[in-house]
Amino acid sequence: MIGTPPAPPDGRTTPDVAGAVITPGHPEYDAARTVWNAAVDRRPSHVVRCADTEDVRRTLAWARGSGLEVTVRGGGHSIPGHSVIDDGVVLDLGDLDGVFVDPVARTARVGGGCLLADVDRATQVHGLMTPAGAISHTGVGGLTLGGGLGWTMRRFGLTVDNLLSVEVVTADGRVLRADESNHPELFWAVRGGGGNFGVVTEFEFALHELGPLHLAANAFRIEDAPTVLRAMRDVMPTAPDELVWSAFFRFLPDWPWAPAEHVGRPVLLAPLAWVGGVEEGRRRVNEFMADLARRGAEPLATGHGPIEYVTLQRLNDELNGHGHRNYHKSAFLRDLDDATIEVLCARGAVIA
């Protein structure tokens, strides 16, 4: 049950902003508090759909005066649910979704509420991109401030490695532009520090030239998974930066290239992509696939060919769609040794 929040000094029960303020009982309340992870069910006292940076500043000031805690929602994709809070204020940046590309300088200014898809579409018009995730409905803000893994990170670095500057609203209401020269300590802190140092309302990214890629989407039988993972362990430390290779255990989706008799069964999905020219990518990826075959691992299903970068970025969208109950744990390993591979494959065989 949400109680009535204390009134701030000016007596207002909602912030004075241009954007919409949604409270319990509003017809859009449930939609406004719903986030990507269906396991998260929280009830904020206010959801403020900020129209601009000034709305962010005003809402922070009002919440501070009201004694209310605040959280920030960009794309609402936070796995533990940091995008929404019980009995507090959600700063919803979804309307701050502009992307402004300078193709000559190879930079992009990106609103704090943008999704990766917004950035990918706008930059690829010019044959450019910035490294950003692998699920296009992820918010730029949370991904960037946490680091930003993605398809192109081996060649171009993490998302945060390509961050040139940020516009930040601090807790005391200042609006600052932080980069290597201006407020450098703040700029250092936001690059990996999450949302703990202010509300980022705009990002500026460096862009890189990138056209279509070559992709081999592969599904392997569970019994072949140890061979595939050992091959990854052996190959990737010295592989060219253009090669990206990931692996995860899933039920085989009903994809066009998936054999019907295997759909819904546990498999190891292990896509390879070449972040470079399509023809070179086809040749190099085929070499790695041939090495796997020599080791005795043939995919039970595979789809090879050129793919546009925007399409690649959307490839995992359905597998990681909204409305599923998610629980994740992560760990860093110094080495993918045989004992670890054995445990991973044993658990992958009984995924539910």
UniProtKB/TrEMBL annotation:
PANTHER family: BINDING OXIDOREDUCTASE, PUTATIVE (AFU_ORTHOLOGUE AFUA_1G17690)-RELATED, FAD-BINDING PCMH-TYPE DOMAIN-CONTAINING PROTEIN. It comes from the Bacteria. SUPFAM superfamilies: FAD-binding/transporter-associated domain-like (SSF56176). This is FAD binding domain-containing protein. It holds the Pfam family FAD_binding_4. Belongs to the oxygen-dependent FAD-linked oxidoreductase family. Keywords: FAD, Flavoprotein, Oxidoreductase. GO terms for molecular function: FAD binding; oxidoreductase activity. Residues 40-210 form the FAD-binding PCMH-type domain. Its cofactor is FAD.
